[in-house]
Amino acid sequence: MPLIAAATGGTPTRRPVWFMRQAGRSLPEYRAIRADHGMLESCFDSSMVCEITMQPVRRHDVDAAILFSDIVVPLKAAGVDLDIVAGTGPVIAHPVRTADDVAHLPVLDPQSVGAIARAIGLILDELDDETALIGFAGAPFTLASYLIEGGPSRNYTITKSMMYSDPELWHALMGRLADITITFLRTQLDAGVDAIQLFDSWAGALSDADYRTFVAPHSARVLAEVSDFGVPRIHFGVGTGELLESMTKVGADVIGVDWRVPLDDAARRVGGRVAVQGNLDPTVLFAGDTAVDQHVRRIVAEGERAVVHGAAGHIFNLGHGVLPGTDPDVITRTVELVHSI
Amino acid sequence: MPLIAAATGGTPTRRPVWFMRQAGRSLPEYRAIRADHGMLESCFDSSMVCEITMQPVRRHDVDAAILFSDIVVPLKAAGVDLDIVAGTGPVIAHPVRTADDVAHLPVLDPQSVGAIARAIGLILDELDDETALIGFAGAPFTLASYLIEGGPSRNYTITKSMMYSDPELWHALMGRLADITITFLRTQLDAGVDAIQLFDSWAGALSDADYRTFVAPHSARVLAEVSDFGVPRIHFGVGTGELLESMTKVGADVIGVDWRVPLDDAARRVGGRVAVQGNLDPTVLFAGDTAVDQHVRRIVAEGERAVVHGAAGHIFNLGHGVLPGTDPDVITRTVELVHSI
Questions:
Q1: Angle formed by the axes of helices A114-126 and A46-60, nearest 10°
Q2: Whole-model pTM over 0.80
Q3: Chain B residues touching chain A at CB-CB below 8 Å
Q4: Number of C-alpha atoms within 13 angstroms, CB side, residue A285?
Q5: pLDDT of residue A86
Q6: Site Transition state stabilizer: which residues (chains A, B) (predicted)?
Q7: How far apart are CA A302 and CA A279, in angstroms?
Q8: ipTM metric
Q9: Which residues from chain A sit within 8 angstroms of residue B284, using beta carbons?
């Protein structure tokens, strides 16, 4: 598989490319399915997860399928009262803010994500041998931010306030979330995913010192406790220029890089031991073929320089997820272009 | 004035401190004024601008007043149809997206910001000799993002799409916005402000390469065209770790740094020629006195190391603006603490 080769220092048969959020709102076939089904319903229905995961693979000829899911899926499965509201995102009925709240957080029983394990079986039956299936989980910090704030946040005020004012409570919460994430990822790995991506989407809100003190130990435990499967572990966040080295040191095999840091620069920052993934600005897909061509070629060149600097490989991707209004034909042409260079 | 001394390599009589958004929603006396007056109405009423600007100076004993205004004030004054909607922010009636839109952008007549010039006169009458008055303006990129998107944005999709797809149109728009910003700042400088701060709040959404190509020439022109006044020019943005050197090179005397980059590290990145301003995470003010004490002392130490590395000085501030729910007494105590160290 080209993606696995690039992630592990091998020689891929073609330049691997996939797009974060390739399954989702940019595709009319996805919107057609979702017209009659809520987000959480879709995430817990094996055949819908399979179908939605496969849609972009069929359409775009990408080198990986990313399991269709949501960061809060394992929390919901564990029994946290939450919903995903269109136009808002996750809404937590009772935000977690006290020692009592943390003590009452449920544990994730692997059986409660059985539908996701079954979906992975269905997807693997459909995927060809060259296309990797990437498992999906949110990292403890990003999960904590949703649980504490009660939903998406701009400033993470309550989250950081807990972190700074009550480190003991903070670490207790992060430990429980790490447990949930480990169970969710091991379930996916048992079901046969070829790689996993740990999404610490909002870690970029932190300084490196705070990341190392309050987040790294828990993300490190998550990545360590799935290492026995021997599959590549991709670690991703947005606005993480200051954190790339720390986010690699916690145990990543592939480090996701957003568009703010050139890939060759990223490879230098992390010491060149891992593969780099990224990093086209998702807005470039709105700017026409000439701009796409120019930026894709620049990123491919920077990825090649990253490998010269010692990176294990380069997996082409966006710097963040596909934006909702993106023309899917542009995505298809971008994949073709990456494969053609 | 301690702030001016720190900005220019002098020896301040005490450690200067002010807080971005110190005038505003954190203060009950501000909310009392605003209960009966809209945001734009407040920004164009000389006595209200003076009163709101002075409120935090009286309460907190800070070393600078920041002119109470909003980034879109000069656009409104020039005749752009816009409003500031509570809970949303600026809303532009007709977003600027075509060559025709750009061609019809109005020019700012200094007389249309006469109320702001008069407010500055009133403020200078009230301020003592040790407290600096800082003028306020948005930088062309941040202004462009509001005009193009039609309001606040999460991804700047339309803004960046114009930048990537039609550089000529982009530069034409940025040139007109630079003109407006220059006129607005020169009006404030003519009225006697002691320093200016150019807010490129959202520049951190860009890579350094894009910043240098699409933004730097215009911000450089703004800063050059106010240099004859010989007052310190502070340049600020959020999430600008990758841009600090470029944002300094455009002509800043003081570089604002958010909480993601330690001040001594920032001083190294920008080559130590300028002063550094920052960089307490605004969420720390919610975390109790112990956390505030710890973070303030760390930042003071990093600021001192920045000066050792060649920075002209350190102005204590937040890494971004005061958050709305901040307890004003915590701000007062934080100022006392900074002055006591």
A1: 30
A2: yes
A3: 155-158, 160-161, 163-165, 204, 206-209, 239, 241-242, 259-262, 281-284, 286-288, 290-291, 295, 323, 325
A4: 28
A5: 87
A6: 70
A7: 10
A8: 0.95
A9: 160, 164
